Amino acid sequence: MNTAESYRYAEFYNISIEECHTSCDVGGEQLRCGNVTTACGTSINCPATCSSGATCWEGECVTCPSLNMTQASPATKSDVPVDQWQCGDVPVVCTTKGGELVQTSHAVGIDAPSDAHVCDTSSHTWACSGKSAWSYFLEGKMCGSALNECMEQVQLWTCPLPRDQCVDHTCICDPFPVPPESICGSDSDGCGNTVTFGSLDGGCPASAPICTSTKTCCMPETEANFEGCGSFSDGCEGTVWRPCPVHTDVCYNHGCCSPLTASSFDASWQCGTAPDGCGGTVHFEREAGAAQINDGCGPNPAGNVFSCDASAHTCSTKCGDDSVGLRRTAGWSSWDARKWSCTGIRHMCKYNGVLGGTGGQTWKQVLQAWCPVSCNTCGRSFVQEQVAHEDADEKQATTLTEYEIERSQA
To answer: Which of 172, 194, 207, 277 is 20 to 30 A from 149 via CA?
Structure first.
């Protein structure tokens, strides 16, 4: 309480005592606004707004300058004129009745369009912030979609189970019906549970021990139920295999068959193929190890190419390029087959430089041996078509450079 004694102590200690107001007005002028709690702990219920154009600030009526609504506000660091703001607060320095300067803020713009709108303080516009999927989740809405306060279609979650249905934003599961013919095994009910069929806890009786994919019990056929050889259906989604008694025989059309071999045919046959009488094929070779190279004639000799007469099963040769033999001899097997071929480097047919990795042979010797067509040496001396000397030298120089690069990278 403000008593004479308290004022004497305040004066002694140089302490200012805030006056305990008992009314909103002083001398007919409104000084207080809103619900004010005085220094003495009492409350005064004053008008929320101040008279004479004053502004209510923390329960006190203060005088504030007029805002220039057509100019940008440096205090808010905005380039947009205040009269174009939809929302926001502008800092204003006001004066109290006692002459003190205080900083207040003046709200400008229009009211929020809805409770979901918040003021974007950077653009000073109302921004709608509607419910998210998680907000709906907290309300118990799990699935489907919902239109929020901002007229946005919010996609909720997909129901997790195969037999789920979304009803009023809730996942309701309707289990698969149990087929009446299912008497064994088990299956998912589509709702996260496993259903076991039959009276034997999913099993089958000894009289029909196999449970099929259709959940029915079945007695399988055995080897004794079939004749011949090969694979047979056991009637219960399985197979029965009957082998041939002679291990060298093969099973052909469910019958055991002794296949023909190369020795069963004319000994003069060198190449090609013939049926073995049991659904297979016999391959002939000109010599052991020829395998199926050139239809059994084997690798080409240098300067010649094998061909097989399919009807006579005999091998013959003719003058021809063999780029495979060329690359194998020169050690180029892993190089570009199109560039490092007989036609690709035919301009090297007259080059007498030594080709590395060939035991001292020259490019000319190797190419004439494996590329007689490209080098034009089939059955006669080397007579390669004339090429301008400068052009040949240029191509040879380019090839030698590329050759050295390939060798360094190999």
So the answer is: 172
Within a domain: residue 329? Answer: yes
Same domain, 25 and 95: yes
Domain hosting residue 310, numbered range:
262-319
Give the pLDDT confidence of 58-88 residue by residue, as tens digits: 899 999 988 777 666 555 556 778 888 999 9
Task: State how many domains the chain has.
Answer: 3
- How confident is residue 230, by pLDDT bands cut at 50, 70 and 90? very high
Say yes or no: 99 and 32 in one domain.
yes
Interatomic CA distance for residues 353 and 351, integer angstroms: 6
Q: How far apart are CA 73 and CA 79, in angstroms?
A: 7
Residue 364 and residue 336 share a domain: yes
Inside any domain, residue 18: yes
| Residue 164 within a domain | no
404 lies in a domain? Answer: yes
Residue 253 has pLDDT above 90, yes or no: yes
Question: What is the pLDDT averaged over residues 207-219?
Answer: 96
